[in-house]
Design a protein that fits this description.
This protein is an all-beta fold. Helix content is about 0%, strand content about 40%. The chain is built from 1 helix and 27 strands.
Amino acid sequence: MRAAAARQAPSGWRRLASAPVLAAAGALAALALVAIVNWPSGPAPATEPNSSAPIPTPTLTPGAPSPLPSPTAQARGPYSWFSFNWLREGDHVEGPQNPTGPLHLMIRAGIDTRVTVDVERLADSPVPPVEEGAAPFASAADGSLVYGFTSTDGAELREVTIADGTDTAVLALRAAVPWAALDRAAGRVYLVRFGLAERQYEGIWEASIADGTARRLLAPSAGISPSAVIRLYLTPTRDRLVALECEPLRPCLVRVWEIAGDRAGVEVGDIPFDDVYGLTDTEIIIGTRRVNLETGSVSETGACGRAVVILTAADPVLVYEADRPASSRCDGAAYRLVALDLSTGRRRLAWSSADPGADPTARLLVPDDGLGLFLPPSTIALSPEGSPPPRGVFLIPVETGP
């Protein structure tokens, strides 16, 4: 390798928070979410919410049994996962950088503690460089992952099947693509698209996997620069596509495309920059905000630390950290998780490091730009110190009750 030093994989959220001029630095989303030098490594600390106002301690259901047992009663697997990292060879920790150095992509995926595939790929660095709307990426796609990179010839999207490591081409196009979401069952891939040469934002597109035909779904928003971080999310039923557009030092814009109705849906502005913790069919959770994808209304979750949305057999649940000593918005006591029923508003103590048999170092695993998790239904994943797979992960079943 020609690299004098490996740079950290870019998490759009970390990069956006750091400076308008984006360097390839950060971690893989809390969500929204991995260091290359010591690959794989644990997820980065969660981004503090923008507001410094304290969140009132939520009222927990008195005397209610915990919906999550201690780690001694773990959920059954299997689960699968992937980690994604990239660096640009020729970069240096100090001194001048080589903006045209080749891109080095690294993907590791597996089932439980078994690594099923290691993918390494070199690609020509694009001009303008990756900091201008062309950073490599990987996103989850139903038992597989779609990853992409932009080179001098345009963007290439590929899919890796986690079960057997099959790496197949999905799409190639003359554009810069910093993010995509794959719906293999529907034969479609959704794209964030920038011009290859001038890097002007061209909006959100849909392309056919079968023949590559493409059409634009959402026109480009005003004021979006190549420094923006734009992410795409599909709701669990694949009825809606959600785009989150975030410019440095500005609030984010949520835009919805109604796939079932083949039309544009609501747009919601003035959303503070934060991590994405998951979606239901009608909501996206961004930091402490619940954004309704049907009405555009915004409400608060009252959560403290990092969180993850779990789709149980009954109702969607937001499991969040209620105690994080490093956070000014959390109690700072023994590490606890609280389960918020997103349908009823009911809260219960979900898990505590003080539970009998619990690992006091266990932390909630939250997928982000560098870590993808495919868990069994109604489960969350914890690991010692939040270390990513394949090391030390255990699953806890999430239940809801009256």
